[in-house]
Amino acid sequence: MQVTGWSRGLEVSGDGKGVVSHAGLALLRHLADKTGLTGGLARALATPRILVHDRGQVMADLACAIADGARVISDFRVMTDQQELFGPVASVPTAWRTLREIALSGKRADQRITQAVNGARRYAWAQVTDRDGALPGVRLADRTLDAVTCIRLDATVTPAHSDKELAEANFKGYGHHPLLAVCDNTGGEPLAWMLRRGSAGSNTAADHLAIADAAIAALPPGLRRRLMITVTGPGPATA
């Protein structure tokens, strides 16, 4: 993997001048570059138009900001305002334009982005298996299951305080009812997700089957043979 220009010559010291806010973001951004996520997103969102800010870089930076604790798009400014560390970073309006362009591109853009994310995950997991021989085992009661890939499915109600898209009244108030699939082996790493209406049922079999398929497709092929899929709540009766 090639090191991108912004991190060349980057040094860390405790005796410099000035204060760097959220300095740990530099590590997240460097990780996105090294795993190929930034480059994969750039290819997924490539356009013949001449752009000042590569859309793949914008998406990678947004992901890093969210991992750092960003709750709204305007929190993206924590990177934009520190060009001495991160180099030229897109503005908040450019971030909004990027998201709008992706939304208008529909499922085709979603599929390309998913492929880029899955490719970066496979590269990162390959480094783990090369070092340790395998992914961590799955803790189950008083034992550990080795050589088993565990996918956990769970739905959760996410409150919304305004009329956002798909937000509806539900049994806990008002908001969304997304369905998530995470990998237990890697500490709950998201594999697939489904943003559903607030009124979506907890035990919708079709949704559970669809997200299970997406989660399995997100795994490296060699880790799809010995699977354990768990579903919390009423899901086991229907999934």
Shape designation:
globular
Unreliable residue stretches: 234-239
How far is the N terminus from the C terminus?
Answer: 40 Å
**Which structural class is indicated by helix and strand composition?**
alpha+beta
Number of DSSP strand runs: 9
Strand order of the largest sheet: 8-7-3-9
Taken in chain order, the helices and strands follow as HHHHHHHEEEEEEEEHE
Q: Give the count of helical stretches.
A: 8
Largest sheet: 4 strands, mixed
Question: How much strand content do the residues show?
Answer: 15-25%
Arithmetic mean pLDDT:
87
Q: Roughly how much helix do the residues carry, as a percent range?
A: 25-40%
> C-alpha Rg, in Å?
20 Å
Walk me through this protein's architecture.
The chain is 39% helix and 16% strand. It has helices at 25-34, 37-44, 55-67, 77-80, 83-86, 92-105, 107-132, 205-218, and strands at residues 138-140, 143-145, 149-155, 158-159, 168-170, 173-176, 179-183, 189-194, 227-231. A four-stranded mixed sheet has the order 8-7-3-9. A hairpin with a 2-residue loop joins strand 5 (168-170) and strand 6. The chain is globular and about 50 Å long. It starts with 24 loop residues before the first helix and ends in an 8-residue tail after the last strand.
